[in-house]
Amino acid sequence: MILALALLVRGFYFVAFRSSDLHGVHLVDQNLYRTWALTLASGDWLGRDVFTQGPLYAYLLGVAYWIGLPDDLVLVLQMLLGCGTVLLIQRIGATVFSESTGVVAGVFAALFGPFVYYECMLMKTFLSPWFTLVA
After folding, report:
1. Which candidate, 64, 7, 73, 12, places its Cα nearest to that of 33?
2. Which residue, among 8, 14, 22, has the nearest Cα to 78 in the 3D structure?
3. In 101-113, which positions are buried (b, 16+ CB within 10 angstroms) versus exposed (e)?
4. Is 23 within 8 Å of 120 (Cβ atoms)?
5. Is 121's pLDDT higher than 90?
6. What is the dihedral of CA 72, 88, 12, 26, to 10 degrees?
7. How many CB atoms lie under 10 A from the CB of residue 57?
8. Residue 37's closest CA among 71, 76, 3?
9. 63 has a pLDDT exceeding 90
C-alpha cells in the first residue's frame, strides 16, 4: 500500500507539473546537467575540462539521451526510483524499530514534498537519499 501511495502522489504531481508553466523550463543546475548530458550523448564522453559538478548524474542522463529517452520519461524513471527510496525507508524503519514504525515512516516518505519535487527535476538531488539509504 505504501508503494501504491508513493506512485499515486508522484503520478498526480507529474501530471500537474506537465500542465504547469515550469514544464520544459531548465534553471541553472538543470540546464548545466542537461547541456552536459547532451554533449555526452553526442559522443564527447571524456570532455576537455575539469568537472564543475559530480559527473555521475550527467553521465546517467547522457546515456538516457544517447538511447533516445525524452526528458519526461527520464523524470518518470527518477520518480520510480524515488518510490524505491520510500520502500527503503519503510524497510529500514521496520527492521531497525518495528513494523508499525516502518509503515509510518513509509507513509511520511511517500508524502514528503521535497522528495517528490526533486525527483521531478533534471538534477542529481534525488539520488542522494537513495544512495544514502542503500549504503
Report:
1. 64
2. 14
3. ebeebbbebbebe
4. no
5. yes
6. -40
7. 20
8. 71
9. yes
Q: Pick the closest to residue 121 from 15, 41, 22 (CA basis).
A: 22
CA distance readout (Å), 108 to 9, 33, 73, 75, 102? 12, 30, 26, 21, 10
pLDDT single digits (tens) 25-61: 888 889 999 999 999 999 988 878 888 788 999 999 9
The greatest distance separating any two alpha carbons of the chain, rounded to the nearest whole angstrom, comes to 52
φ and ψ at 45, to 5 degrees?
-80, -20
3-state DSSP of 24-54: CCCCHHHHHHHHHHHHHHCCCCCCCCCCCCC
8 Å CB contact between 90 and 106: yes
In the prediction, which pLDDT does 48 show? Answer: 80
* CA 108 to chain CA centroid, nearest Å: 17
